[in-house]
């Protein structure tokens, strides 16, 4: 039976973070919702009883103290679901932007860990949404490909540190989801390649063997199921939620 407790969601006001937060609060969990936009967090809290807004920039070390200050008991689950605004190929991305991508994703995961580690206990879950581009990047994915690869590596390290304490780690690798962020990425790629945006969108859909892109709620459901006691057996693994986009066998 899943316990009811406190969860922390970083990137809570984003499309995926909002879906995760809504699922967790609907099941009775309290959620410390972390994000940079105080207005968006306030709206999230108004629509989801049980949300405690925490305005913090996970790309900054000050977020560690800001998140920790909102915690007054054990943390059942901590989720890193912050999106990555950096995009472009190795030919077009600024080197500093690549560093910013790694700082946000890998550095953000580490900041979340430092904020909650004293509140984790046996049975707690530490979860990062890494993105499948870290496993199978394309030629236009310098930022997300590099940053998410770093997340997979870091999460494996964290699993070795915390697994013996009964704290399990889980990395989720969703494929492209039909969100405003994807629409922005598609527009950028279309401009770079000089083609129509609908062509790029169809390429994303055609890569799946499901025949459609996964939904936000399907990924949020995956996160929620990790709270079940039986999910401990998934410790240190990468859970692919991409509708069959990934083709590698590992």
Account of the 3D structure:
The protein has helices spanning about 15-25, 40-45, 60-70, 95-115, 140-160, 180-195, 195-205, 215-225; strands at about 5-10, 30-35, 50-55, 75-80, 125-130, 170-175, 240. With about 250 residues, the chain is an alpha/beta fold. It folds into two domains: about 5-175 and about 215-240, Rossmann fold, CATH 3.40.50; about 180-215, no CATH class. The chain has a seven-stranded parallel sheet with strand order 3-2-1-4-5-6-7, sandwiched between helices. Helix 3 (about 60-70) packs parallel to helix 4 (about 95-115), helix 4 packs parallel to helix 5 and helix 6 (about 180-195) packs across helix 7. The model has no long low-confidence stretch (mean pLDDT about 90).
Task: Please give a quick description of this structure.
This protein is of the alpha/beta class and 250 residues long. The chain has helices spanning 15-26, 38-47, 62-68, 95-116, 142-162, 180-193, 197-206, 216-225; strands spanning 6-10, 30-35, 51-55, 75-80, 125-129, 168-174, 238-241.
Strand and helix map with partners:
Elements: E1 6-10, H1 15-26, E2 30-35, H2 38-47, E3 51-55, H3 62-68, E4 75-80, H4 95-116, E5 125-129, H5 142-162, E6 168-174, H6 180-193, H7 197-206, H8 216-225, E7 238-241
Parallel strand pairs: 1-2, 1-4, 2-3, 4-5, 5-6, 6-7
Helix pairs in contact: 1-8, 3-4, 4-5, 6-7
């Amino acid at each position: 039976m899943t316990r009811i407790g406190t969860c922390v969601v970083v990137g809570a006001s984003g499309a995926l973070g909002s879906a995760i937060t809504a699922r967790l609060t609907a099941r009775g969990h309290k959620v410390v919702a972390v994000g940079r936009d105080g207005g968006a967090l306030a709206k999230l809290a108004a629509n989801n009883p049980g949300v405690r807004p925490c305005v913090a920039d996970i790309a900054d070390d000050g977020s560690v103290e800001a998140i920790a200050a909102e915690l007054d008991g054990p943390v059942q689950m901590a989720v890193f679901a912050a999106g990555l605004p950096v995009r472009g190929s190795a030919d077009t991305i600024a080197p500093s932007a690549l560093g910013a991508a790694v700082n946000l994703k890998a550095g953000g995961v580490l900041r979340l860990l430092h904020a909650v580690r004293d509140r984790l206990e046996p049975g707690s879950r530490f979860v990062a949404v890494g993105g499948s581009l870290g496993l199978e990047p394309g030629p236009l994915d310098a930022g997300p490909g590099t940053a998410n690869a770093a997340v997979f590596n870091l999460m494996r390290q964290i699993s070795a540190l915390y697994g013996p304490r009964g704290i399990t780690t889980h990395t989720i690798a969703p494929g492209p989801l039909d969100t405003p962020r994807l629409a922005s990425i598609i527009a950028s790629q279309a401009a770079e390649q000089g083609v129509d945006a609908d062509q790029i969108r169809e390429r994303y859909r055609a890569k799946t063997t499901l025949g459609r892109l996964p939904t936000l709620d399907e990924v949020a459901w995956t996160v929620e199921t990790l709270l079940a006691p039986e999910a401990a057996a998934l410790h240190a693994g990468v859970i692919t939620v991409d509708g069959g986009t990934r083709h590698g066998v590992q």
